[in-house]
Known about the structure:
Blueprint: E1 3-4, E2 17-20, H1 36-45, E3 49-54, H2 60-69, E4 79-82, H3 83-94, E5 100-104, E6 119-120, E7 129-132, H4 146-154, E8 158-161, E9 167-170, E10 173-176, H5 178-187, E11 192-194, H6 200-210, E12 218-222, H7 225-234, E13 238-242, H8 248-251, H9 259-269, E14 275-277
Parallel strand pairs: 1-14, 2-3, 2-12, 3-4, 5-6, 5-7, 7-8, 8-11, 12-13, 13-14
Antiparallel strand pairs: 9-10
Amino acid sequence: MTLLITGLEEISSPFKAIILDAWGVLHNGVQSYPYVLEALTTLRAQGKKILVLSNAPRLKESVQESLLKCGIPESYYDFLHSSGEEGYLTLKENNVFGDICFHMGEIAHRGLFDKLTLNRTEDLDQAQFLLNTGFINPDLNPLSKDDFLMQAIEKNLLMLCFNPDMHVYVGNNLLLCAGTFAKRYEDLGGQVHYFGKPHANVYKRAMSMLDIQDPNEILAVGDSFATDMRGGQQAGIKTILTLTGVHSKDLYPEGLFNEENFKKLCASYNVNPSYVMPELSWS
Length: 283
């Protein structure tokens, strides 16, 4: 039975650490939500470890800069990890995928190439795998990329997806993320290896960073059924779904919780959040 709460104060006492999604929980891509800094300040004052865990396809330094631009300095959290950082660390520690990749993504996502002995090519015939951080300036029709994806499938190229998210709101604008094209690649018959939520690799590293072995001591907050809620549930971590972010229009129209739509989403994703909270706040 999912419980509707108004703030973390109601349920945070038993937990030693809290994992927070960034986009859709802490900020909307432009600025932080109203009660975020108060909640983070109170959590730290109570000795809770705070890990910001983002599905951004970028290195953690870049994610840290984005948080700062949204008004959230690093002094408000203890640890930061991202799907891009997870992919980078995996390639650094044990790269079994190859040395030459075709990068599907923005120039701003290429910071990892400065740290890895990894070469980029614009020729699919030379590529050993695809590195997907999201297409450059994607329109809202992923089918428009099918010709390219089919060429890659014909060459039997594995896709590494550095952001499993399907889409994200930047302010009120909907943008497609790398996960949309990864799913389409799979639908067309391609093979994809994912880094980030909801996959086990990123939760294993997160628990190591927190130095906590028991998932019952961790609480995870996110805005997405597909990534945050599913990932936490699979890891045995209690979860809170915020009504900001990707499901806001379905679940929180006109400032009222739509329980019927919530139940439909739970059934659709086969996921049951432990708690629901309108937005990240302490009380």
